[in-house]
Design a protein that fits this description.
By secondary structure, this protein is an alpha/beta fold. The protein is 38% helix and 17% strand. An 8-stranded parallel β-sheet has the order 1-2-3-4-5-6-7-8.
Length: 260
Amino acid sequence: MKLVDSHCHLDRVDLTHYEGSFRNFVTATLESGVEQMLCVCIDLESYPAMLELVRNYDNIFVSVGVHPNDRDRREPTASELVEMASIPKNVAIGETGLDYFRGETDDREWQQKRFRTHIQAAKDARKPLIIHTREARKDTITLMQQEQARDAGGVMHCFTENWDMAQQALNMGFYISFSGIVTFNNASDLRDVAKKVPLDRMLIETDSPYLAPAPYRGKPNQPKYLHRVAETIAEVRGMDVEEVAQITGSNFSKLFSTAG
């Protein structure tokens, strides 16, 4: 089975069990059946080191962006993001988006401004967006519509929202990506969404080192656990897991068309 992890943070993975070697980690990941990975940026401060870490691996791609959770990160301009995304290894802008989970209403204006900057950068760079959304359904969709995010396209990563939001994103040409959350016992509503998303618009991810799937909950997540996400999607859709792997891998190549 050949899997593609469409969203992970490899610069944050615990290498303890790999003798501290990133190369050993990549070798073990490939042997587990994961053939490609997208290492996603969350701040500009760590981007150079992240890029250097994966530079020599043809099967690992990167994105550039600033996550909505942290206000004290250096704010990028759209032109700066475009310049940083200009290298062939970089296939996307993000992750970006809105996260209202903590509930601070005074945080929303700067989050929205940062999100708008990333959407503009994605359109200018002609590269897709990686969108993070949490407890911000209405504003996320509204901003995507206002800023014409459909012109860039992209993916709603680690999707945990309802079918209505999924439909609105799909209508703008976006893909929906499912993480290990879809395997959780309390995620029956999300599995229902996974049944409905068109197969040609679906991706899978680990979001490593976060959100390890069942039965690995409580442990640091790793791309090699992606098989659990694929197996769960196959189960809820009555499909063969190999077919899920093939389709989602093909979708990854279509969306991130510069990813070899």
